[in-house]
Amino acid sequence: MPRETLEIPAGISPSEWADLQRQFLEEGVARCRELLEGLDQHCDALQIAQLMHRWAGGAGQLGYHNITELARFTERLLRRGPISRSEVREGLSALLQAFCDLRDKQGGGVPDHVAQALRGKTVALIGFPAEKADRACVAMGLVGARPRIFPFTDDLRSASASDCDLVIVQVGAATNVAQLQAAAAGLPAGKLFLAGERGHLMALPAGLQAMVADYLFYNWEPEELLLRITLAMWRKTTALYAAPAAPAAVPCEAPEISRRAVTIPRVVAVDDDPVILAMLRATFRNQGIQCETADNGRDGLLLIQQEQPHAVVLDVNMPGMDGYEVLASIRAEQIPTQVMLLTARQQENDVVRGFQLGADDYLVKPFNPLELVARTKRLLRQTHREVA
Fold it and tell me: Both 119 and 228 in a single domain?
């Protein structure tokens, strides 16, 4: 299904817009199911055609162009006569699927963990273009978070911005990097996000990148925004996994791998797709990062245990021992490594489960190799290791 556009008309607040969308989608799901259940017993073609006409107009106003097309198609079926119940059923079924997909994507499918983590939180959006600010506001409105919009000229350390739980700054070609770095130095650790195009973000000085909790690359989706700020909240408030307490005489950074300086980082990539493995191997090695690979979860865990790598790139959906089981074993054995999940499934619950098991980051396939490198290097910087 093509991506739906989202534009908030002037004079309507993001929360009001989100309410209109939610009501429209919920009505669509309920009425489609009702009509399908009673279609064999009763089919009032005129009444259903009028409903289709109304939905086509309402969907167009809300930006749901796919629903507009499906509703118009079904209306034409009903008005041309004589009606074919099988064709009407097919049209209503397609509409039901479209309503369900959009409802789940735009709020109905937000996991409870995400909603609970973000409810009541304030997020500063600094320097965002109007369209992206609107999308972010709608997404946060669905979970009860409170966005605050500022121009980039505002000091990040001002009371209004620094009081927010997170600060997200849009970076572009015209951004004053020195000003941004000086302002970022006054923010608490784990509070700063940067958003923008990959090229701009990856060209930032290493010192500034080390201050960043996470990135939102330019083509971010609303669900990704919610998941990434949720992860940041969890990092700030609690451990992502429960590790056994260390003896009092042993410092937390006791494992040798976490203390030594590293000039050539080592990464283990685990994926059952040989094309993905070849891409990962070539991408990392071209960036001066040593990469070993395994094509299944069991061999991958053995390799991780032997190599004690600085980072692991781990596919979620593998036959046999899947990525979640490998991740759980890594954390249970307290192997000191950063873990990035790769998933071809975009359901939020999959990603949330990975966070709860101790994942440090994630990417959804298909991914951009440069984004993978940027995120991996960010993870490595968080362990205070030198990255070539």
Answer: yes
